[in-house]
Structures are given as C-alpha cells and as structure tokens.
Design goal:
18 strands; globular; TIM Barrel; alpha/beta; 8-stranded parallel β-sheet
Length: about 425
C-alpha cells in the first residue's frame, strides 16, 4: 500500500532536513521525499501545519509483562506508545520472571507481534535474576531478539561484574545500559536528599549516589574500551561526569527523562506519590543542568522510563508507594516545551527522541532516507489538550501531570508503512 504524507514540514536530522515536502511510503519503506509529489493510487494523509519526522523511539520503558499484567501489558503499553507518537520502544527486563533467558525474550516479541502496534525491542538482563552475580547468556539472548542488556530497576553492585559485562557484551555488539545508583547511599530513601527530605521528614537519596555510580561506569568504559549507556540521568554532578568523559573521548552515552527537566523535588511536597520516582526528582539546580546537557549534547537522548503502577501501589503512604510514573503520552509535549522556551531546536528534539535512540541501540529507524523503514511520526506542535485519566491509553494512570494543559500531540503514528494510530480517525 502507498501512503503519501502531503504538505508537512519534514524534520530529519539524520539528513539535515527541515523543509516543506511530501513523503511517500510504499511496501514498508520510505521511497521518496520531495516537494509536490504526484502519486496515483496512494492513500493521502494531509499534513499541512504538521511536523513529519522519523518515528519516535523510546529506549526505556517498563511494560510489566510477563508477570504484572494488572499494571500494564505489552498490548496496552504499545497502545500508549503509538498514542504518544512512538513507533518503537525498548522494554526493560525487570519483569516477573525477569528477561534473563531466551524464552522470556521470545515471549515478549510474540506478544508484541500479536498487539500489532509499535515495534517492541526487548532489553535482557545483565545478570541472572538481576541478582548482580552471574552473567546471563548474552549470545543466546541476542539470537532470541534482545537488543541490549541491563539490570535496570537495580544497579549491578559489583564493579568486577560490570567490567565482565562490558567486556562480554563487546563480543556480541550488545549495548550495555547502566542503572547508575550507589545502593549504600540510596537504600531506604524515598525522595531527594535536600528540601524534599527535610520538609517531608523522609529519608533522602543524595545526588552523589548517582554521581558515584556514573563515575564507576565511566572508569570501566575506559578500562575495557567498551561503550556504556547511562540511564535516567537526574543530577548536575552526573551530567558533569558524563561531559568530562565525552571530552576525554570515552564511549559514553546518556539519557534523561521528561520529568527530570519538567519537575523538581517540590512536586513531592504534600506527599504526592505519583511524583515518587527512582532516581528521585531533584533540585532546581539539577533540573537546569539537565536542560543545559540536552542543549549542548552531553545527554544524547530523551527516554520516558514509563513505569506503570496500579492504584493500590500509589494510593498509600509515601514510604510504601512504588517508584515510577507513566510517560509515553506526555513525553512529546513536555519536550516541545523545551523548544517553545528556546532551550533546544525542533531538529534537536527529533534527534533526542528518534535519531539518537536508534543509533545508541543500533535499531532500524531514526531516519527518513530512501529505503529506511517506513516508521513515521506526524505531530501537531500547537495542539492543546489536558492530561486526564480518560485521555491516557496506558492501563495505569500514575502520572504527576494529570490536570496539566499540554501543547503538542501526535496525529499519525505509522509503523512499517501502516497507520497504527490516527488521532483524526481515533484508530486503536
């Protein structure tokens, strides 16, 4: 089937493009990009006033299946993803059982195929059972379909084990994603150590715990000559370490999440459990440092760390509440707010949400070059909407942005040349 996206503003940093043009998709591929294309027998999608870009890729989500389907399933998570404009997501391995063997990896891919919405790329465990002791079989996991390894949800406590993981992963060309947290400093904490811990009377999680763990990973990357990717960076000190590592020529990449540049620890005041995340929301100084790191390239990508939880796990005492928030449907407008405020440009936004994630995880996509997969996101940067539980497609509703007015929303999400979500037609 042919699809002609007509009259949109094409933004594709992989080709240095930012221009008005038409885009033709056929047989799951990009086949032409030029002004005023005339094509017979094509389904025409009017895109005047809209942004057309390579499909958004979220390199950090938690879909909870297998094992915790009451929070989210691969099907409901995929629907939330395409509603948010994401054509592909990378699922973290802290399911029940964890994705530490080929059988679980294949199960995730099977359920994603059945859902038939976005591409779902499994990230497998670094260590068996996420216990931080024995490495998983990286080769078998990659053969089964894993695109990276991580113990996300937990750090790898022993530096020697992480060193082996980096060396072993290099043999299989598997990216390693680090959950950078020094447990001896963070264990038992609930909020940022500082204003939040003092005001709420709760044990805090110091920023230095993240920085120490990031420094260890940077040193191990230097020692092994292997690349490492740092997940959910939240602190000024962590940013500074990554910046210096890059200046030294080390193979280090990093991501942050929208809540770290949109909120501060003040969102937890009043014991608001939807704002309880790990790493915790930090200070205004940290938030500004994250913005600057997005602007200057120190942070390579924006990922949601979409972490659904049921009401029972959030509507309780703060100390007992689970860490995490949902973010697939609010990531794009929150990132667009950075553009609106002049922090980053629109092409930089597309780089952070599409091109860089594809490059970091070595995934197809992230480009509209001829012959590339026909994964395309079309969004209206001016669309205004209010975040409500009814508007959200995720099974869980644990968002700190409920009630916020957002600006910017996906209109069409196209995966493999197929329109899997159309806000104009409300396909689901």
């Amino acid at each position: 089937m042919k699809i002609l996206l007509k009259g949109g503003r094409i933004v594709d940093p992989s080709q240095g493009l930012d221009q008005a043009a038409d885009l033709l998709l056929e047989d799951g591929k990009v086949v032409a990009l030029a002004p005023d294309l005339a094509v017979e027998d094509a389904r025409v999608l009017p895109c005047e006033g809209l942004i057309v870009c390579p499909g958004l890729i979220d390199l950090h989500v938690h879909f909870r299946e297998p094992g915790e389907e009451w929070k989210e399933t691969i099907a409901t998570g995929s629907l939330a993803a395409v509603a948010g404009g994401f054509t592909a997501v990378a699922c973290m391995p802290n399911t029940r059982p964890p994705n530490d063997n080929a059988e679980v990896t294949r199960y995730i891919l099977k359920k994603a195929q059945e859902a038939g919405l976005c591409r779902v790329w499994p990230v497998a465990c670094i260590t068996k059972g996420q216990k931080g002791e024995q490495l998983t079989e990286f080769g078998e996991l990659k053969e089964a379909g894993a695109v990276a390894v991580s113990d996300d949800g937990r750090p790898v406590p022993e530096a020697a084990v992480m060193r082996l993981a980096l060396e072993y992963a290099k043999n299989f060309d598997l990216p390693v994603i680090s959950h950078a947290e020094e447990l001896s400093l963070s264990r038992g904490g609930h909020v940022n150590e500082g204003l939040a811990s003092a005001r709420l009377g709760l044990r805090g999680i110091p920023a230095q715990g993240e920085a120490i763990a990031i420094f260890r990973e940077v040193m191990l990357a230097e020692l092994t000559g292997s690349p490492v990717h740092i997940a959910h960076v939240s602190t000024r000190s962590g940013v500074e370490i990554i910046r210096r590592a890059k200046e030294a020529g080390l193979s280090v990449t990093a991501e942050t999440a929208p809540h770290y540049f949109s909120l501060t620890e003040e969102a937890t005041f009043g014991y608001h459990t939807n704002a309880k995340v790990n790493p915790p929301l930090r200070s205004e100084e940290d938030r500004r440092a994250i913005e600057e790191a997005l602007r200057d390239g120190t942070i390579d990508a924006i990922a949601t760390d979409h972490a659904p939880h049921s009401p029972l796990e959030k509507f309780c005492e703060f100390e007992r509440a689970a860490f995490g928030l949902i973010g697939l449907e609010t990531a794009l407008p929150l990132a667009l707010h950075l553009v609106e405020r002049g922090i980053i440009s629109l092409p930089r936004l597309v780089e952070l949400l599409s091109c860089a994630p594809a490059r970091i995880l070595k995934l197809p996509g992230g480009s509209l070059r001829e012959g590339s997969p026909a994964d395309v996101t079309v969004f209206d940067p001016e669309a205004r909407w209010v975040v409500t539980e009814e508007e959200l497609h995720s099974k869980s509703k644990n968002s700190p942005f409920l009630g916020w007015e957002m600006r910017g929303r996906a209109v069409y999400t196209i995966v493999g040349g197929r329109v899997v979500f159309s806000r104009r037609e409300l396909l689901s």
